[in-house]
Sequence to fold (166 residues):
Amino acid sequence: MTVAPLPVYVAAGSNVEPQKHLAQALDLLRREFPDLVASRAYANTAVGFAGDDFVNLAVGFSTTLPLPELLERLHAIEEACGRARLAPKWEPRSMDLDVLLYGDLVGDYPGARLPRADLLKRAFMLGPLAEIAADVRHPTDGRTIGELWAAFDQAAHPLRPVSLGD
Fold:
């Protein structure tokens, strides 16, 4: 039986040499997922701790990998970009890859809650995702990502476009 590929959307962020590490992560992600599309990159202040600004973007691709295997691949890319697996959650990091949406999957899974719980609260996740997946419906809210972004208080959470130097 052939498994149909599912659309996956991932947030990527870094505040340790962010342009370098995001470019590296995009290269590694493209090797794994050739149909990858990426949003622009945006700088925003660190959330949850004092630290350098983060640079964030969103990527989308299709995969037949089961969620646990996808998470393993994403963790390997984080590690290749210098992230220690057991580092504390609220601290600077060279790479953070978080699954936002995995098809229409909803629920708690080892290593992920889908859809990502803070997707609708974080401009640095929702804004870039709206660039590449505006017509995708949020599996629990029902509105499209574009509609959710249009309704978001963007003025209170400004995103500053930055170049990754490509």
Observations:
- Residues 6-162 form a domain with the Alpha-Beta Plaits fold (CATH 3.30.70.560).
- Residues 123 and 155 are 10 Å apart (CA to CA).
